[in-house]
Amino acid sequence: MNEDLRASEGLEKLGYKQELSRSRGLMHILFTYGLAAPIATSLIGGGPATMIWGLVLVSALTLTLALSLAEICSLYPTSAGAYYWTYKLASPRTRLLLSWINGWMTLVGVWTVALSVNFGTGQLIVAGAGIFHPEWVATAWQTYLIYLAVITFSSAVCLFFNKYLPLIDVVCAWWTGLGIIGKFFLSLFQVTCTNAQPSVTLVALSAEAKAGRRSAGYALGHFDPSSSGWTPGWTFFIGLLPPAYTFSAIGMIASMAEEVHKPSEQLPHAIVLSVPVGAISGLIYLLPIVFTLPDTATLLAVASGQPIGVMYTLIMGSNGGGFGMWFILFGVGIFCAVSISCAASRATWAFARDHAVPFSYTFARVAVPPRTSDPIPVNAFLLSTAVQVLLGLIYLGSSTAFNAFVGVAVICLGLSNVMPIFVSMLEGRRHVARAPYNLGAWGMPLNAIACAWILFAIVLFCMPTVVPPTPQTMNYASVVFVGFGLLSAAWYLIGK
User: Across the chain, what does the average pLDDT equal?
Assistant: First the structure.
């Protein structure tokens, strides 16, 4: 009996039929993203010290979440993910309601995080154009149209090149690794002497470093809370938003469960490894930046709100050099848009398969698109994409309200991830005692830390970045979250 056949039989024991092709391994489901898109928030949240040590702190806390999810996922390796885990772990009296709540939080979370990645990649295009045309400020309509172009491209790749997606994911990994490490090794290590005391300082994103070189003390310890208006302590926490966003979708790896070889083994490893891989690549990406960081006020004054292009241009000292650095980052964004769009469609399909969305029979079907050979959930993919396109229209009315979707994504995915962990704790972890990826005696403390971190992160993502807040700087994440909650509650009552 081969491994895929055993996986299919295991899936049937969980209550599902094998409908998708298993063509993925560990490297095909290991992805992280998001460090560059909200870098302005890191600057507001204190600058270099927050960027470096905030990433280290968030990575350590997120690792407890990843280990907790890996344990449960190894026991129930299905694309249904967290809402199925909640159903299996909860008591018979509460499991239906809790899994419904979890499922809708998962669905809203995957839609909005896919939206944020596609839209963030569109904003990177705007930033790239600004390198050569700094006087141009994209209108809301222009930004939305660029976003549509990105989501059209990522959707076309997912729909018509599905059999090549594992290869594309490997190319993404190499692009990201070589791009970030290449920039790192373009950096120089320079021995400087201050008061006859030698120290090794990482200087320059490249040999140029036209914006100036920062000392190790500045790069690793400079903290300026003045831009946020918050107290220094809370300013540091505000600066944790970018790394928290980076790791917000680790639970979405489970969405690919039914296309993975040896899912009980590969999925837990992918979920856990995504954290150190993301942390190491993040540090390699950020260290050259903090050692050559231009004036923070100049970066925060960029009209588009996306200072990446200006930052690279100032560091490199030329438009061409800045564009070269930007292009590496843009490639990462495009690859991640494809990966996250694919994962969002699988999560949508899984929930429809359990008759939990309107017209579920239609969205639960799989089909073979033209020019492909593998069955994929086409209708669910189109639904996920359509929701993102419609939600993107909000940007035309209010960019502030639209930006709340980043917070909503983290809140929803955080709650959906932590719910089965919390339920398992309430049940004395008796179900996960037989999990293939078992945490043993470390399980309860790791679960508790993961729950505490996610609850704190939810509060964090509901707070405005700067104070006093204005209608333009107010954080509307909680408002949008409540709105989605009311819609899902209404559908639950209608469904009953």
Answer: 82
